[in-house]
């Protein structure tokens, strides 16, 4: 299956599932730069499920728009389970959604380190009445487009889990 069409298929499945259960979604994206929001909103009628999206590429944007604690960012870094969880909680708090998904990572080609290599991504999910979770993903360094696309598809799969 074409990776881009797979993204669209996953977005359609997410919209159908959340429409059926009457819940709205918010996104908080860093390394995906709005790719998840774009996939969801590319589908006509998505406005009844997709509530809003935050693109918080810089640390300051994570602080200002999502309420991520500056000390947390300093302690754990932007690419961490702790920050992904805080981003998801912030998107939930600053929206009218019932579920929020977040993505933060190193898409490359630069910016990686031995501790946080290119392809390391964390996806957070938060929902009212459910514990916030963060999942670590390690994607092959097959280019920026690949890592961003795989991150978005994995986030949509997590919303379906």
What CATH first level would be assigned?
Answer: Alpha Beta
How far is the first residue's CA from the last residue's CA?
A: 21 Å
Tell me the number of helical segments per DSSP (H or I, 4 or more residues long). 6
Beta-strand percent range: 15-25%
- Tally of DSSP β-strands: 5
Sheet/helix structural class: alpha/beta
- Kindly state the percentage of residues in helix: 40-55%
Task: Examine the secondary-structure arrangement and name the CATH architecture.
Answer: Alpha-Beta Complex
Number of structural domains: 1
Within the largest sheet, what's the order of strands? 2-1-3-4-5
Q: What does the radius of gyration come to?
A: 15 Å
Low-confidence stretches: none
Shape: globular
| Average pLDDT, all residues | 97
Question: What is CATH's topology name?
Answer: Maf protein
> Order of helices and strands, N to C?
HEHEHHHEEEH
CATH homologous superfamily classification: CinA-like
> How does the major sheet shape up?
5 strands, mixed
Short overview:
The protein has 161 residues and is α/β, with parallel strands linked by helices.
How do the helices and strands line up, and which of them pair or pack?
Layout: H1 3-21, E1 25-29, H2 35-41, E2 50-55, H3 59-66, H4 70-76, H5 81-93, E3 99-105, E4 120-127, E5 130-138, H6 144-160
Helix pairs in contact: 1-6
Description:
It is a single chain. The chain has 161 residues and is an alpha/beta fold. The chain has one domain (3-160): Maf protein (Alpha-Beta Complex). Helix content is 44%, strand content 22%. The protein has helices at residues 3-21, 35-41, 59-66, 70-76, 81-93, 144-160, and strands at 25-29, 50-55, 99-105, 120-127, 130-138. It has a five-stranded mixed β-sheet with strand order 2-1-3-4-5, sandwiched between helices. Helix 1 (3-21) packs parallel to helix 6 (144-160). The longest helix is centred in the first third of the chain and has 19 residues, at 3-21. The mean pLDDT is 97.
């Amino acid at each position: 299956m074409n990776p881009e069409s797979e993204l669209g298929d996953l977005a359609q499945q997410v919209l159908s599932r959340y429409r059926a259960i009457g819940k709205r979604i918010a996104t908080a994206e860093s390394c995906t730069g709005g790719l998840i929001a774009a996939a969801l909103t590319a589908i006509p009628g998505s406005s009844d499920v997709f509530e809003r999206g935050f693109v918080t590429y810089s640390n300051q944007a994570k602080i200002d728009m999502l309420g991520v604690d500056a000390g947390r960012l300093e302690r754990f870094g932007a690419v961490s389970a702790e920050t992904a969880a805080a981003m998801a909680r912030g998107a939930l708090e600053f929206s009218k959604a019932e579920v929020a998904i977040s993505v933060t990572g190193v898409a490359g080609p630069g910016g990686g380190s031995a501790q946080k290599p290119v392809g390391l991504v964390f996806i957070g999910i938060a929902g009212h009445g459910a514990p916030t979770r963060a999942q670590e993903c390690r994607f092959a360094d097959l280019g920026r487009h690949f890592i961003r696309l795989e991150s978005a598809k994995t986030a949509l799969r997590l919303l379906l889990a």
